[in-house]
Amino acid sequence: MEVDVTVSDQPDTYDVIVLGAGPTGENIVGRAVAGGLTAAIVEKHLAGGECSYYACVPSKALLRPMDLAAEVARVPGLSLGPVDAGAVLERRDKAIGDLDDSGQVGWVEGVPAAFVRGHGRLAGPRRVEVTTPDGGVRTLVARHAVAIATGSAPAIPDVPGLREARPWTNREATTAKQVPRRLVVIGGGVVACELAQALRFLGAEETTMLVRGRRLLGRTEPFAGELVAEAMRAAGIDVRFGESPARVERPVPGGPVTVHTASGARIEADEILVAAGRELAVHDIGLETVGLTPDGPIKVDDSLRVVGVPGGWLYAAGDVNGRNLLTHMGKYQARVCGDVIVARAKGLPDDAPGLRAIADGLGAPQVIFTDPQVAAAGRTEEQARAEGFRVRVVEYDLANVTGAYLLGDGYTGRAKAVVDEERRVLLGVTFVGPGVGELIHAATIAITGEVPLDRLWHAVPSFPTVSEVWLRLLEEYGL
Ligand SMILES: Cc1cc2nc3c(=O)[nH]c(=O)nc-3n(C[C@H](O)[C@H](O)[C@H](O)COP(=O)(O)OP(=O)(O)OC[C@H]3O[C@@H](n4cnc5c(N)ncnc54)[C@H](O)[C@@H]3O)c2cc1C
Q1: How far is Cα 267 from Cα 46, in angstroms, rounded to an integer?
Q2: 152 C-alpha to center of ligand 1: Å?
Q3: Which run of H or of E encompasses 262?
Q4: What residues pair up with 39 in beta bridges, in sequence order?
Q5: How much is the pLDDT for 394?
Q6: Integer Cα distance of 35 and 288 in angstroms
Q7: Low-confidence ranges of the chain (pLDDT < 70)
């Protein structure tokens, strides 16, 4: 459906044009219009982007039963029957609106902004050409700014036979109508771990993970990947480190797939899921027409303005600039980007503190919804040392916190804080354990606010909550 809402004095001329209606693009439009500008947003697939249909939302809907079942199993006196995978998939379908984006299109129109369905490409300064679903071409002109928010897509490694085998990516896995009994997962990052665990719980009895490196979740503190790997193995997932596919065969489309690994193993499966990183959506968006080369993340400054474009009218936010591939960080950048475009369009000062995406450089907060969960904010110890900070580290076993013990028998988890010894403030915090996702915002506030440890000491956590780990970490530090 193409909805043509012209909210400007000249048809197809807007103050701001946004390419891509994912969470980032939608938020840029929302802020720009709230600031008094007119805007159009171009979307080639579904308004709401990867996050709403193929990423955050469906993956968390698929993971929730596993989480809950593990929690129930830790409390004597409670029990659950076998999981009804069909019911879980149905609830997932509801969460993704059955891949119908009319609600999100309606939201855009209500902003109000023009929603234009089609593939958009830059066509020189301040111009965007849209190839519409009927094959027509429509040209949009921006008075002030164009913002690129085209996101990212799954990367498929160059392995003989892999593409021909039509592997699952996050898109097929998160919208699956059936759970394969035998599954091979390629990758050891967040998407690989979350989806392997979710599908294993929902019925993938033989799940094998081929992890090229020596650990899972390579961007987190090493103990996080170790605890998740232990839990995966305990759940029956065959996690193989230092292993990768060398050749893939699927003679009959939709039939069984055979994976020959680099070490010479042969694995038969019903499905193969590739979760080996993301490719930023920088191709086929006309970057060449404004003198840029699409050979990596679009380089931006802290106001999200693209570096090296005369006139300073081009912005890029969200996954596509490679700063932090997370929905909440894309939306954060979008708020900054929308507001800074408004300030510049109105000739207002553009250097207020809210007009710079400084949080990008502090280490993004992130929750990984595996069992156990991993929640981290700020820098890891390794990152902090590499940046030259004088670092001290404290760790604590979460099982020793009364609040954690009361959550259930066998609660396993760990906390680590990275302290900048010069200023005695936190640089990073990582929690691993069931339900720790809800703990992380306190860390985000302490890190972003650069709260001195001596002050943090007076932030008293309630008894008996897991948050008492904060007190234990400070005691370990010596307060
Ligand atoms: C399985 C999985 C789970 C995830 N879970 C989480 C999570 O729990 N929490 C979290 O914070 N992050 C999560 N992420 C990351 C998150 O999905 C992304 O960071 C987020 O979607 C990025 O938003 P975006 O708006 O920048 O890009 P996208 O969501 O990719 O949206 C970009 C939009 O632009 C459109 N587009 C692209 N090119 C064009 C063009 N030329 N013309 C018109 N339209 C175009 C696309 O169709 C798309 O709709 C997950 C990712 C995956 C893969």
Answers
A1: 36
A2: 6
A3: none
A4: 16
A5: 98
A6: 31
A7: 1-11
Phi, psi for 272 (deg, rounded to 5): -125, 130
| Residue 173, number of CB atoms within 10 A of its CB | 28
Atom of ligand 1 nearest to the CA of 326: 19
Angle between helices 56-73 and 85-95 (to 10 degrees): 140
CA distances from 127 to 194, 217, 225, 329 (A): 40, 41, 46, 27
Listing from the earlier edge strand, what are the strands of the sheet with 425-433? 366-368, 373-378, 425-433, 414-420, 391-397
Q: From the CA of 153, give the closest atom in ligand 1.
A: 30
Tokens for 473? 């970490």
Cα distance between residue 180 and residue 205, in whole Å: 8
265-301 tens-digit pLDDT:
999 999 999 999 999 999 999 999 999 999 999 999 9
Size of the chain, expressed as the number of residues it contains = 479
Q: Compute the distance between CA of residue 376 and CA of residue 408 in angstroms, rounded to an integer.
A: 23
Q: What is the DSSP letter of 157?
A: -
Who lines ligand 1 at CB under 6 A? 19-25, 42-46, 49-51, 55-56, 59-60, 119-120, 149-152, 170, 174, 191, 281, 285, 318-319, 325-328, 330
Peptide bond into 167 cis (omega under 30): no
pTM of the model: 0.96
The amino acid at residue 394 is: V
**Do 229 and 216 form a contact (C-beta atoms < 8 A)?**
yes
